[in-house]
Amino acid sequence: MQKEPNERTQPFHLFEQVVEYLVTRIGRGEWQTHEKLPSVRSLAIELKVHRLTVFRAYQELKNRGLVYVRDKAGYYVHPGAGACAPEPTAGAIVPAYSVRNRLSEIHQVPVSYQFSEALIDPNLLPNMYFSDYVKRVFDLYPKVLATYAPVQGDEELRETLCRHFAHIHRFHLSASELLITSGAQQAIDLISRIFLKPMDAVLIERPTYSSAVDIFSQAGAKLVTVDIHPHGYNMDQVEWCMRHYKPRLFYMNPTFHNPTGYTVPAEQRKRLVELAEQYRCLLVDDDTTHDIYFGKEPPPPLFTYDTEGVVLYIRGFSKYVSPGLRIACVACRPPLMKHLLTAKSLTDNGTPLLNQKIFLHYFTSARLQQHLGKLRIALQIRKDVMEEELRDSGWQWSSPGGGLSLWIRLGKGISSPALLERCLEASIAFVPGVICDPLRQMEEWARFSFSFANELQIRAGMRRVLELSRRI
């Protein structure tokens, strides 16, 4: 008989998500001072959670002085509870929602040693060649700037990508089953807005891509964590979570996972699709560094095994072809595509046609394959340099078979947020593990990207990081 996973598989502090939901609505003024709040029973039904969860959330708000209780009459907004929202300056127009992107906040700090951005050093990209392709595009499409692209994306590009996927991954789809997006992150946002409503359960890896956590949290989703390991997932845990929480979707990054670099094996990918079909759970496969491998090629995407239309496959190309073009795509079957098209039309009415045409002609060139081969070698060298500098540190990590970063367990007693604070003062940036953790608990972990800094910067920067860590 299958055992239920231990408590780590539970969504920690679900009541805190309910608290945040209530605080946000009070802060926006949806409930005024002394106004009665929804009953425990009605709010539990609305949010699809247990009544004890709502009760605990109300008790937390009571302890914070945001609500008060009238005997046998329910909960009411306490005078001054609106102070839970930031106080606007006189006459200021304030946003209706509190929006945050923790990763972007780190990226916005100018530093000399950049280990936080999982971007490729511009010096490793074929910048001189791009000008040739830009000129060629204007010769072939002289009116390219005089029109919008189709909302779904340039048909010539979509047909080219379909042929590419059929040749490389052996899965077949039509151009009508591809949507071109302005980067992979836009695809995640579109999926979130179309397929989620407040308090829907979302399975998400622990750790995971920080911005995905912020996007799903902004949608009001109930995050349920699934641990990822060097060997992939505990499939019993995944099945238990699907059966118990009935999630709307499972967001995953199974190929050179961000931030860990782990890759989920093919047999688990097949089983994930089977479970998704059984429990009617959408699988969102976010695949942005598939071609950045240092030895063995990774397994095929989950879409390869999908026969029932349960997989949304996001394929990003921006990082290693041309970040400035912001080109990615979503592959899915028609019933899902029509909803994404509506969301895309309301977002930007289509990715810029010029960007798509430039990408198309570079993507189909022999130069791209030459570029990818050289790029893999250069990135592996930088990874090796970073690992060499860390060899005697006592820190722990699994050397990734691809991707752009190392996921490192720091030395005993070292907090990654505390280390980041000192590093930023020394003009060094990295990503603390807590922002990659949906539970915000992984303080002893950090992500260091080796793709943006050159070898000399990596050596000097990592030595400085280690020096600063010894002072904590």
From TrEMBL:
Key words of the record: Aminotransferase, Transferase
Name this protein carries in UniProt: PLP-dependent aminotransferase family protein
Organism listed in the record: Paenibacillus mesotrionivorans
